[in-house]
Amino acid sequence: MVCKKCKHEIGPEELKCPYCGAENPFAKRHAKNMRKFNADFTQTERKVTNAAEKTGGLAKRAAILVFVIVACFVLVIIDSFAYVNFGNDNSQKTSKNGKASVAEAEALLEQGEYIEFVEYLNVYSMMSSSSKETEHLKHVKYVAGEYYDCIREMESMILRSTDPDYFDWLDGDISNFCMDLEDFYDVIEAQRDGEDNEEYKAYIEDMDNELKAAMKTYFSMDDAAVEEFLSLSRNQKGVKIEEVLRHE
Questions:
Q1: Is residue 203 within 8 Å of 109, Cβ to Cβ?
Q2: pTM of the predicted model, to two decimals?
Q3: Which pLDDT score, from 0 to 100, does residue 86 have?
Q4: How far apart, in whole angstroms, are the C-alpha atoms of residue 187 and residue 31?
């Protein structure tokens, strides 16, 4: 991926650019998500195990699986709103101060904070809004939404792949990611051809580059391997991801 400040090529896991010292928001966000997920998951797993000790055999295993699956689902929902906690008066704040909210969303976009951009739009109910204030964001937010889904799916698969029991549910998550990936590139191609979104095309290209950088990191691929991966059918992609996650 490319440093947003000096434009040198940097690794997706480098917290700071080795050339200019600028922070790498992708690596910073990934490290933060890893710490949060691991801490939350460990705490939840400990509680589940203690609760399941009262049962035995298959019943114990089933109890642990059910609790862990539910816990992971809840953690993903909570994490999707981790950027800000606006309380219960968000709708009033949005309607009273819409221009300011849009300006804050645009600032996140300009900083390349695409995950936070989508979460901000969701919290302020701007992701599905068709108001005049958000009309100019319609193209980029569609791409950002698909980018968000792809990154979250990858993070979830990688973080949970350390749990042996997770592989019983791997096929569904892989399938979801492959569909999200196809949707991302369908949307991105449609937006690239548009004439009324010129000012946001740089962000769209940046999301494409960041998504590829994430695949390089999470799936242990180089540039050539990523391009080859993207040319595969959905089923072939699924087989490749499973091989990576199972270390085959």
A1: yes
A2: 0.64
A3: 40
A4: 28
